[in-house]
């Protein structure tokens, strides 16, 4: 019996190989809203080369990057993040703080952006501004303040620990073995017991959260189920939604506290359609194969109408499907479908 997951793995490899063929014409070096577009990547490459290799053009390059951050950054705030990162490396911490703040406005749940905002706030003396900026900013600033107290071997402030526990930052395990554990042990025993009683350990799988973050950063997730690819699984979940995956979103409960939202991820219609095509390749049922392939092509056309990046990725999937149908032995029974592409 043919192995569906092995063939799907070949399909994924073809997808990423064909993604290099997206554009046949030379793009202008101007960014657009898609962080993975060739235009955006070429713009960023030009800026980085000027910053690192052309001293006379460095300031002009930083000015261009600062301008696009403030006027036409990508949907995920990546160019603002790059501006903040370059300024941080140059020691311009006030500028880097501004860049990371702009990046978080576009992508408020990105943990990397949050951490760099916190570090730049420390370096630039903007912790008070960060604390007043937002709900997350208050948490980040409090973490920095507590970290400073611990490094200076000062007696930690129990109210800071209590605030961070209420916001769900600390778990019993992190206070026992984490980076703040030594500092926590400096509190009075009765204070430690009181704080530990307030901890509500969330039912969160950080492994699942990692998978969710990887899927979120994968551009193909927009139109194709990439969950099993990132999990390293090649079973039936490869072509359908993976149960129990953690969505990379934050919701608010009645108290205004953020909480992770868990649940199953809806299977991609295009992935499900191709799964049916693959199943018909095993049976050789011509009528079912035509119907399943028709559904796949419909989903490809729908994806092409959603935006430029979706259209390019759908084209890559279409080309991958054609190559599989023409050349993969697993599809020999339905090879006639290649004529439809």
UniProtKB/TrEMBL annotation:
Keyword tRNA-binding: no
Superkingdom to which the source organism belongs: Bacteria
Keyword Metal-binding in record: no
Keywords attached to this entry: TPR repeat
TPR repeat ranges, renumbered to this chain: 77-110
SUPFAM superfamilies, sorted: TPR-like
Name of the protein in question: Tetratricopeptide repeat protein
Organism this protein belongs to: Leptospira levettii
